[in-house]
Amino acid sequence: MDLWRHGTEGLNTYKSCHQMELGSGMLIQLPLYENSAVYADHITFRSFCCERFPVYVSTVLRNNSPYKYLNEVSKDWQTFIQVSDYVGGSAEYAIYALILSITSNFVITVFVTVICCINISGRAYKRILQLLRVASLLASLNLTIFITKVLRGLEKEHNLYGIVRAHSIMHIFSDDMTFVVLDFLSTLMFQFCQVGIVIRLFQRAQEKRIIFFVGVILTMTANILWVVPPFTDHSTRHRNDWQILRPFVYLFRIAIATSYASIVIYHIWQKKKLWFKFNQMGLLTLLTVLVVLLLPGFFLADVSNLWISELGEVFNTTCYVTSTVITWEWLDRLNVLERKEEAQSILGRPIFEEEQQDYKFAKYALKVQNALTRRESPGASMDLNDTSNNSEVCDLQTISRYDPEDQMLEGRSIDQMHFNDKGTYRDQALKKLSYTRDKILYFTDQIVQKSVGHNNNSSSSKSEKVKQRKAMVRKRLGLDQNGVYIYSTKEVIFNSDQDEDVEDEDVENEDEKTENKNVNDNQNNDSTVATFTSNNINHF
Amino acid sequence: MVCMIHIVVLLLAITTVFEIFPLITVPVTKYLSLSSFRNHYYGLFGWCVRGKSQELMCTKMKIGYDSTDVDSSGHVLTLPSHSKVVVSNLLVVHPISLAFTGTLLILAVIIMVTPLGDSPEMLLFTALFSLPTFMLCLLCFLVDILLFISKLDWPGWLMLAATISMALCCSMLWVMRRVVSVKKYESQQSIAHARSVEQYSISDIYQSKQTSNGSEFEVTSVPTDSLTTPEITHRGFID
What we know:
- The structure holds 2 protein chains of 2 kinds.
- Chain A is mostly helical.
- Chain A is 63% helix and 4% strand.
- Chain A is built from 20 helices and 6 strands.
- The model of chain B is unreliable at 215-222 (pLDDT under 50).
- Chain B is an alpha+beta fold.
- Chain B has helices at 2-23, 93-113, 120-148, 154-196, 202-211, and strands at 35-37, 40-42, 47-50, 56-58, 200-201, 233-234.
- Chain B: One of its GO terms (cellular component) is plasma membrane.
- Chain B: It is a multi-pass membrane protein.
């Protein structure tokens, strides 16, 4: 509470909360004697207050009522209703509105968690999805505990003092350690999931790595700085410095959320052709735009004092849950649409120059060739002693182990004597640095690209044997990795070529006859591949 | 590509100018302010109040306001958003953001005028550098909004324009990195292919096809010395 605003407590003093001298002239009826009263010559009165704030009954006292408040109490009431913060009596902080907003937060969070656990499948980015599920469950659990505590607290207050205050609810946000810790953990996880979502938006490997590094660094920085202020000693001489840290991190979080919203909205704009391809896609796109803008929107509402202050704090968990889960669902549906389009097109999925640079496609082609030439039985493929096939097909491991430096070493003249020279210090340092970089990139790729799962729901009726066989073939072809798909082949006929070739038809007829046999052989081979792919496309 | 880097430099120059305005607000100059509220004028290095004689009285120049400062009428300083006065120390992001934007502008100019613009590493570094620059720019705007809300004057609102402009620059730099990466790959490929493959002109092949009476397979004996029209030359593997 009061991240950047002035504290409200103590700003207003209410006279009715202190003892007031009413003087003399009052008759007080004695409770046990019906017809007798006592004349009081010196009366002091103190209004019922709770933590220096006056408490009023919710009954409306009309002007014609014989009972009236004291003048001082009425004056304090006018002050009380004009204070527009959570300790004041303005309608914005009415207990009903607060309970309504908190319970609706709870319902939305639980609803989105159920969707996340049941509806969203683990086709891609399995580990991030698991993290998303854990974070959603944690957020739901946190809000459940919070709601329980709020209701129990209100009940206790009502029973003890006969009042229900919004004040006590707002304090739980900052004072209750269970809420603070669980909220921090779930927010951290959601931010990591948002990094995962941004990674999904980009297709190039290098960009994925950069997003991973930048996203993780930003998230860690924001969260480390967020937890530092509560554990510091504020009585030191650097008190002012610590005081500005919390608002700075608050703004930093808003800046990260705004950047996330900008990236997602830019991506949505790029895919505007797919908005209305699917019945619910337009609605879901609109919802996604709204939910990613929730956090920056609440910040603006908060600073402009539109409704209650610290509005962002109240809706923080819900904002993170919705902006992550709904964007994830939108991306899943978008991927399905894109895969459909790519499968129907001639060229398939786009290929980038980065994928070509490490002979990735050549290696993949060899892998496919390797998989196709081997026998399909698992026993034979696992047989290490079977060298007949391995001798014909180039082994992938030999390619992956290929290192140009080895070739350079081999290319040294045998006439010269080479000592085991370690090289200069600079070379050593560069070598170490490049080795470290390669290791970091390797682990990044492991996290970014290898966290892939596949949906088992579609093949639940098949036998275990078929499943294992399928999984083996998928692994051989590299389909267990992200971004590898098989599309059905498509025959393309260019009319213009046919027209041009009409004149040369007679000349080429003879050549065609001679080549027919070869073509047929090739078609046979192609047809086996085509059949294989068309069979598999339904399942992958 | 050439157009894009020019646009980036132009946008960055505009952004730098936009970010200079908050630095020359009161008390540095007397005519510009980040925000004005109830006769108080707030700047980056202090705040001023207009007295009864219409004279502007300002605080000492330093980043962040002091909560003990009082105006001529004896009122304690209050900010339009009722924020804590200590939060005004966050205005320090303005000069930091300007320094980052200036550096990014220099990097963009280097890319524009030197051959370093063709280096993917240089572009990657510049694009990476643009990320904290954008974040700082956005933080400047958020700090202004937090302190002064809608009471911002036009130098304050310029930070919103600077943030949008920086977002555009950032996107364009990343697009440029992609373009340069593709270009480098294509040039490497073309060099590798040019070593092993002879080049043939399509027009010459057609000409020789028309003149020759024999089968089309005889066309392949065209001498390469006469093929000098590069615009219709194609390259590729010949098995």
